[in-house]
Amino acid sequence: MQFISVSRRLTERFTGEEFDEHVGAERERVRELYRDGVVRTLWSRKDAPGAIMLIEADDEGAARAALDSLPLARLGMLDVQLFPVGPYPAFFPLGRT
User: Fold this and answer.
1) SS (H, E, C) the chain
2) Minimal CB count within 10 Å: which of 10, 39, 45, 71?
3) Taking the model in full, what pTM does it have?
4) Using an 8 Å Cβ cutoff, are 72 and 5 in contact?
5) In which band, very low, low, confident or very high, does the pLDDT at 95 lie, cut at 50, 70 and 90?
6) Structural domains for the chain
7) Residues 6 or more apart in contact with residue 68 via CB below 8 angstroms
8) pLDDT higher than threshold 90 for residue 88
9) Of 95 and 39, which is predicted with more confidence?
10) Tell me, what's the pLDDT at 70?
11) What's the rounded Cα separation, in Å, for the pair 79 and 43?
12) Each residue of 22-47: b (16+ CB within 10 Å) or e?
């Protein structure tokens, strides 16, 4: 299954210095998830500090576990939303969904 994760750094609760302490570990964990095929694509948000990820996982629990393994998430420094996604129905032949 595929999921879209939208995260935002909680800059109203934590300082830039606090984020800086953990950003190296965060980047390394994301690289590991990418290497393992869990993170398929990753974008930086331009509207707020954070990221959008396309995640491949067996189910929502596995996707959430991957996101929870991120250092900033473990420290409560991220607001993370997760959405299951699938093929757009207009691409199916008529009468099939």
Assistant:
1) CEEEEEEEECCCCCCHHHHHHHHHHHHHHHHHHHHCCCEEEEEECCCCCEEEEEEECCCHHHHHHHHHCCHHHHCCCEEEEEEEECCCHHHCCCCCC
2) 45
3) 0.87
4) no
5) low
6) 2-86 (3.30.70.1060)
7) 74
8) no
9) 39
10) 98
11) 16
12) beeebeebbeebeeeebbeeeeeeee
**What's phi and psi for 85, nearest 5 deg?**
-135, 160
Average of per-residue pLDDT values in the chain: 95
> Which strands sit side by side in the sheet containing 50-56, from one edge to the other?
39-44, 50-56, 2-9, 78-85
Give the model's pLDDT for residue 96.
63
- Residue 1, C-beta contacts closer than 8 angstroms, at least 6 positions apart: 56, 57, 58, 59, 60, 63, 84, 86
97 pLDDT band, cuts 50/70/90, is low
